[in-house]
Design brief:
The chain has 437 residues and is of the alpha/beta class. α7 (171-180) links the parallel β5 and β6. The chain has helices at residues 12-20, 30-43, 45-55, 69-79, 81-101, 139-152, 171-180, 190-199, 216-225, 250-261, 276-291, 295-305, 317-327, 339-343, 360-365, 401-418, 421-434, and strands at 4-6, 106-112, 115-123, 126-130, 156-160, 184-186, 210-211, 239-244, 268-273, 310-313, 331-335, 351-354, 391-399.
Length: 437
C-alpha cells in the first residue's frame, strides 16, 4: 500500500514520525561496538580476521586483508570493458567538479596598515575511506570518496570495504579505486574496520580522519570513536523528496520516487506536491513500475512507500517548499514549471536537482556532484562530502612595528579585563624592549 498523506491533516505525532524518518537508535549497539573497539585496539590484525570470519568470509585469513596488485588486475578483467568505461566517465566528471572546489593554497589581507591576516590551506596527512558493500557493489561510492581525497592532495589515502564470501574486495570498487589513483584497499568492514583505522593494527594504518557511509554498526563505532579520530559526515539511510507542481509529469515523479526507496526498508522517499492530479496519477502508476523490479528490491520499495515515504499532499507550492526546508532531505529533485525560481526558495537539502533531465540516479553516478550527503535532517547544518572534508585551514598573521603600535594597548586592555596577567605582561614588557609607548 502506498501511503498518501495530507500535510494539513497530519496529527503532531504522525508528523513527528515523518520528520524523524528512519533515524536509527544505535544505543543498543554501543556495548557491542565498545567491545569490538577494545579488542581491535588490543589484538590488532587477529581481531580483524576473527570478526571478518564471523560476519563476512568464513575462510578469511590475514593474507586477505590487503588487496594485491593481482587483485586489481583481475578486477578489471572481471567487470568488463563497458563497466570500466562507465567508471572512467563518471570519475572524469566527478574530478572536474571537485577540482573547481579547490581553494587558493594561501591568502592574505590587510586588516589595517601593518597588520596582515590570512589562511594557509593544507590537506590532512591521511584519510581512511569507508566504502560499504551490503548486498551490492558500490564503485560509485568509491569514486565519491576517493576523488575529493585525491584532488585535495591527501598524502596517504586508504580504503576499507567489507569483503565478499571469498574474502575479496568488490571487483568494480577496486577498478574505481585504481582509476582514482588509490592503491591501498583493505578487505575489511564493519565496526572492526573503523576501530582499525582509528588505532592502527599490524597491517591497517592509523589515519587522521574517516569519511564514508556505513551501517548502524559502523555508526555506533564512529560515535564511540568521536574524539579519538574525526569520524566525518553523519550519513544514514537513503532519503529523497520529489517536489512537484501541477506542471510535473507524473510518470517521471513516480519513477524517481522509487530510486532512493530501493536502497533498503529504512529509506525514506516522498513525493511532495500540492497538485492532487499529479499525486493521483503517480499513485496509479506506481504499482506497475514497482512490479517491474526484482522481488528483493520490490519489497524494499513497498516497505518504504508504505512507511516513512509515499505521497504527501500540501495546500500550495509555498507549503511544499516550507516542508522541504523543514525536512532537509538528502536528495531533492525539483519538477516545477520554473525550477530555478523554486531553487531560490530552498534553504536545506543535501543536493538540489533541477528539472526532468536531472534525475537522482544521474547525480548518484556521473553528473559530478558528490553523492555522499547528510541524512536525517543534518542537511540543516552539514554539507555533502567535498575536498573540504580532506583539507584544513591554518590562520596566518603578520604584524610590523607600525601595526603593533596600533594593537598593543587594545591587547593589554582585553588581557587585563579577562584576567590573564601573563598575556598583559607579554605586551607591556615587549613595549619596553622594542621601544613602543
Amino acid at each position: 500500500m502506498i501511503q498518501v498523506r495530507e500535510l494539513s491533516k497530519l496529527a503532531p505525532a504522525d508528523r513527528a514520525v515523518l520528520m524523524r524518518r528512519a533515524e536509527q537508535d544505535i544505543s543498543s549497539l554501543l556495548p557491542t561496538a565498545q567491545a569490538v573497539i577494545e579488542r581491535v585496539k588490543r589484538e590488532g590484525d587477529a581481531a580483524l580476521v576473527d570478526y571478518t570470519r564471523q560476519f563476512d568470509a568464513p575462510n578469511y585469513t590475514d593474507e586477505h586483508l590487503k588487496a594485491t596488485p593481482d587483485d586489481f588486475a583481475q578486477a578489471r578483467e572481471a567487470v568488463g570493458p563497458d563497466v570500466v568505461a562507465a567508471i572512467q566517465h563518471a570519475h572524469d566528471n566527478i574530478r572536474r567538479f571537485h577540482e573547481e572546489q579547490m581553494p587558493e593554497p594561501m591568502w592574505f589581507m590587510e586588516v589595517q596598515p601593518g597588520i596582515m591576516a590570512g589562511e594557509k590551506i593544507t590537506p590532512v596527512a591521511s584519510a581512511g575511506l569507508y566504502v560499504p558493500r551490503g548486498k551490492g557493489s558500490f564503485p560509485s561510492v568509491m569514486l565519491m570518496l576517493s576523488v575529493p581525497a585525491r584532488v585535495a592532495g591527501v598524502e596517504r589515502v586508504v580504503v576499507v570495504t567489507p569483503p565478499n564470501e571469498q574474502g575479496k574486495a568488490d571487483a568494480a570498487s577496486l577498478v574505481a579505486a585504481s582509476i582514482a589513483g588509490i592503491e591501498e584497499v583493505y578487505a575489511v568492514g564493519g565496526m572492526q574496520a573503523v576501530a582499525g583505522l582509528a588505532y592502527g593494527t599490524q597491517t591497517l594504518p592509523r589515519v587522521s580522519k574517516i569519511v564514508g557511509p556505513g551501517s548502524s554498526y559502523v555508526s555506533a563505532a564512529k560515535r564511540l570513536l568521536y574524539g579519538v579520530i574525526d569520524v566525518g559526515l553523519p550519513a544514514g539511510p537513503s532519503e529523497s523528496i520529489i517536489l512537484c507542481d501541477e506542471s510535473a509529469d507524473p510518470r517521471l515523479a513516480a519513477l524517481d520516487l522509487l530510486v532512493e526507496a530501493e536502497h533498503g526498508p529504512d529509506s525514506a522517499a516522498t513525493l511532495v506536491t500540492h497538485s492532487r492530479a499529479v499525486a493521483a496519477e503517480a499513485e496509479r502508476l506506481l504499482p506497475g513500475y514497482i512490479a517491474e523490479l526484482p522481488e528483493w528490491r520490490r519489497k524494499f520499495v513497498e516497505t518504504v512507500l508504505g512507511g516513512y515515504g509515499g505521497i504527501l499532499i500540501t495546500d500550495s507550492l509555498a507549503d511544499s517548499i516550507a516542508f522541504v526546508n523543514e525536512y532537509a532531505p538528502e536528495h531533492l529533485e525539483i519538477l516545477t514549471a520554473d525550477p530555478f525560481s523554486t531553487l531560490g526558495r530552498i534553504r536545506n537539502a543535501g543536493e538540489i536537482l533541477l528539472g526532468p533531465y536531472t534525475p537522482i540516479p544521474t547525480s548518484n553516478y556521473c553528473l559530478g556532484l558528490n553523492a555522499i550527503l547528510p541524512t536525517g535532517g543534518f542537511g540543516r547544518s552539514f554539507s555533502s562530502v567535498s575536498v573540504w572534508d580532506f583539507l584544513k585551514r591554518s590562520g596566518i598573521g603578520y604584524v610590523n612595528r607600525e601595526g603593533y603600535e596600533t594593537l598593543s594597548r587594545t591587547t593589554a586592555t582585553l588581557a587585563d579585563y579577562e584576567g590573564f596577567p601573563a598575556h598583559a605582561m607579554s605586551i607591556r614588557k615587549r613595549n619596553e624592549i622594542v621601544g613602543v609607548k
